[in-house]
Design a protein that fits this description.
Shape: rod-shaped
Helix content: 40-55%
Number of strands: 0
Distance between the termini: 78 Å
Radius of gyration: 39 Å
Order of helices and strands: HH
């Protein structure tokens, strides 16, 4: 479409302002515009949204929130154990895979 507009504008300008002077060239013949047989490229805006739905996004955020709360609780336990360790008190602190269960620390009399 743009080529057709440019050719029409060039033709009108040659009619209104013909070339004059020593470097005058003959009016070039306009080449007819042949429509392309190639299909137009597919625009990404022509398809519907393929991302997660509102419910799926909410589930993802809830899962992240639960993970964050779980990690915050673990960090709070570690900080409490560090606080008591700096004061010389053994806190019955345990974690998955620990070599001793939490019951091994009950002799100190401190409960969490």
């Amino acid at each position: 479409m743009r080529d057709l507009t440019v050719h029409a504008l060039t033709w009108v300008l040659h009619l209104l302002f013909p070339a004059r002077g020593r470097h005058r060239t003959a009016t070039p013949e306009l080449v007819p515009v042949v429509p392309s047989t190639e299909p137009a490229p597919v625009s990404p805006w022509s398809r519907p949204w393929t991302g997660p739905t509102k419910e799926e996004a909410a589930a993802i955020f809830w899962q992240q929130a639960e993970t964050t709360l779980r990690l915050r609780a673990v960090q709070q336990q570690r900080r409490r154990a560090l606080y008591y360790a700096t004061r010389g008190v053994d806190l019955p602190y345990s974690y998955p895979g620990a070599p001793f269960p939490a019951a091994a620390w009950t002799s100190t009399g401190v409960t969490a």
